[in-house]
Amino acid sequence: MPTPKPIPACTPASRPEFAYVLSDGDNTISMYAVNSCTGNLLPTTPATLATGGNAFGSESMAVDLAGRFVYVANLVSNASDLATISMYTINSTTGVLTPTTPATVPTGFFPQGIAIDPSGRFVYTANSDDNTVSMFTINSSTGVLTPTTPPTVATGWSPLSVTVDPSGRFAYVANQDDDTVSMYAIDSSTGVLTPMTPATVPTGSSPFGVTVDPSSKFAYVPNAYDPNNAVSQYTVDSVTGVLTPNTPSQVSAGNQPTSVAVDSSGNAAYVVNRADSTVWEYGIDSSVNLTLKDTIATGQEPFRITVDPSGNFAYVANESGSVSIYALSSNGTLTSAGTTTTGGTALSVAVIGSKQ
Question: Could you list the residue range(s) of the whole structural domain that residue 314 is in?
Answer without folding.
Answer: 22-352
